[in-house]
Amino acid sequence: MVKQFSVFLENAPGRLSNLMDILEFHKIKVLAFGIAEAGNYGIVRMIVDNDEKALEIMRQSNIAVNQTEVVIADLESLPRAVHVLGDIKINIDYAYTMDCSKVVLKVDDVKKAIEALSNAGISTYASKC
Question: Which residue, 48, 52, 67, 56, is CA-closest to 7?
């Protein structure tokens, strides 16, 4: 399953730049990225190429971070995926695109979602690339 980081940053100039500098310095590549504004803070959601290293580096840098599992599916399957998940009462908390062809879905039951999507013939990805 794919892990996503939620990083909590002060909503101020330079805070995101600092995070990107830290990741770049440690050769951690960002594969998917989104920001949600929450007043004085922002939530940066991202998928990276090296989860363990990124988590260690961010914690060592005193960056507030959580990790959660997400579902990655083909973007062209999104309309069907939404119906499949809705039919089995799985809520989509949020979503963002990963590239031009994939969508990241944060759902309340990852295993059940993957099974339902697979049963509906919708491809999901067990890895990030």
Answer: 67
Share of the chain residues as helix, strand and coil, in percent rounded to the nearest 5: 35, 40, 25
How many helices (H) and strands (E) would you count in the chain? 4, 6
pLDDT given at position 103: 85
Q: Which two tokens stand for residue 35?
A: 């920001």
Q: Give dist(CA 16, CA 63) in Å, integer.
A: 11
Both tokens of residue 34?
């989104």
What is the rounded CA–CA span in Å between residue 77 and residue 2? Answer: 18
Taking each helix axis from N to C end, the angle separating 15-25 and 51-60, rounded to the nearest 10 degrees, works out to 130
Q: What angle do CA 58, 100, 48 make, to 5 degrees?
A: 15
The pLDDT value given to residue 129: 63
Report residue 123 as tokens: 């491809």
Phi, psi of 77 (to 5 degrees): -90, 0
pLDDT of residue 64: 96
Q: Is 0.85 topped by the overall pTM?
A: no
